[in-house]
Design goal:
The chain is of the alpha+beta class and about 375 residues long. The protein is about 45% helix and about 20% strand. Strands 8, 11, 12 and 13 form a 4-stranded antiparallel β-sheet that branches. The protein has a 3-stranded antiparallel β-sheet with strand order 5-4-7, with helices on one face. A hairpin with a 2-residue loop joins strand 4 and strand 5 (about 90-95). Helix 5 packs across helix 7 (about 210-230) and helix 8 (about 250-320) packs across helix 9 (about 320-335).
């Protein structure tokens, strides 16, 4: 038919349809894969005139394979990793972060453990996904957390262990080759160490002020055990999250705790009262004792003075008995009659009036009574 020679059908030349021009290409056309392969083959034929299977071609292919094999030994160690190079499965060296090289596989291989990352292992609790809260929640694991104390009580202990690989070369190698399940090993050793420390302690210090001591003891025990295994693990911290009595008896235990708190309060009040009263009693006792000591010293001194005076008087009496006797008599009478009212009657001619009437109370001058004395009645 005549339209077959037009190269485009009855609607003209080119990819046209009955409604006009056909779809036009937009943007650059993608390269043709077959064209690229054909060009690569042409270039290889130019490099290897004898063909692929000629001596030169085989040599070039072998050299390219060897080059790619040698280049495969380059590897990069990240900042928190350590590179452990194995030669036929044996640990030969440990490399630091950065670009490094090892002999290609299968001569040498490399392992990249996270040696500087701090790992967390929880004992007595586990994290589970909670779709209702759109996050994770903590679920208690009683078979791990319930422990027996030294005084035969049960305590519920949840704690976490923070650990990482020892950064030295020996530690990384021990971590990779001496233990098979690091997470499980750390968890089992930590639970065993906590049970041992709790089993040596009383429940009262565990629930009150002995947490730091227990954490330190558990950390040291875990580290010694892992070092004996050659695990290459460093325990950085042990944190006790929850320490409570079992849920079945927690109400009764709180009552006991309240009673103990009241007991301690009463003991403190009694001790305060004792600290106040005892010093006062001791002070009064010391005062009385000092007064008695003073009275004793005074009495002894007075007795010694009186005896010394008597001895002096006796010495004078031996020298002149009559004079001394008279002087003692006069001094005694002066001391006895010095403060008394006296009436002297010489017995003269006017003494006849004494017999019928002698108004002595009118003849003597009345003196006011001394302080502290009652006035005496009658005549003297």
């Amino acid at each position: 038919m005549p339209w077959k020679n037009q190269g485009g059908g009855p609607w003209g030349s080119g990819p046209k349809g009955p409604w006009g021009s056909g779809p036009q290409p937009v943007g650059p056309r993608p390269p043709d894969l077959e064209d690229l392969l054909r060009r690569g083959q042409d270039r290889l034929q130019q490099i290897m005139p004898g063909g692929y299977f000629s001596g030169v071609g085989i040599t070039l292919i072998i050299l390219l394979i060897i080059a790619f094999w040698l280049l495969s030994g380059f590897f990069r160690v990240q900042s928190e990793e350590r590179g452990v190079v194995l030669r036929f499965g044996k640990h030969v060296r440990t490399v630091d972060p950065g670009l490094n090289y090892h002999l290609p596989y299968p001569i040498e291989t490399v392992l990249l453990p996270k040696a500087l990352r701090v790992n967390t292992t929880s004992i007595g609790m586990t994290l589970i996904d909670d779709p209702a809260r759109r996050g994770r929640s903590i679920r208690d694991v009683p078979e791990e957390s319930l422990m027996l104390t030294g005084d035969e009580n049960i305590v519920d202990v949840d704690f976490t262990v923070l650990w990482r690989i020892k950064p030295d070369a020996g530690g990384v190698g021990d971590f990779l080759f001496n233990i098979q399940n690091p997470e499980g090993t750390v968890k089992a050793v930590a639970e065993s160490a906590m049970r041992e420390v709790i089993g040596r302690s009383q429940i009262q210090p565990i629930l009150t002020g002995a947490r730091n001591t227990i954490e330190q003891g558990v950390q040291e025990l875990i580290q010694r055990t892992l070092d004996s295994y050659g695990a290459g693990i460093l325990i950085t911290q042990v944190q006790m999250q929850k320490v409570d009595p079992p849920a079945q008896v927690i109400d009764a235990f709180r009552d006991v705790q309240a009673a103990r708190a009241n007991l301690e309060q009463l003991q403190n009040e009694a001790q305060t009262y004792a600290n106040q009263v005892v010093p006062q009693a001791r002070g009064r006792a010391a005062q009385i004792q000092q007064a008695a000591e003073g009275y004793r010293e005074q009495a002894i001194a007075e007795a010694k003075g009186q005896s010394a005076r008597f001895l002096k008087v006796y010495e004078e009496y031996k020298k002149a008995p009559d004079v001394t006797r008279e002087r003692i008599y006069l001094e005694t009478m002066e001391r006895v009659l010095g403060g008394a009212d006296k009436l002297v009657y010489d017995g003269g001619p006017s003494g006849q009036g004494v017999v019928p009437f002698l108004p002595l109370n009118e003849l003597t001058t009345k003196r006011p009574p001394a302080a502290g004395q009652q006035p005496s009645g009658g005549n003297r």
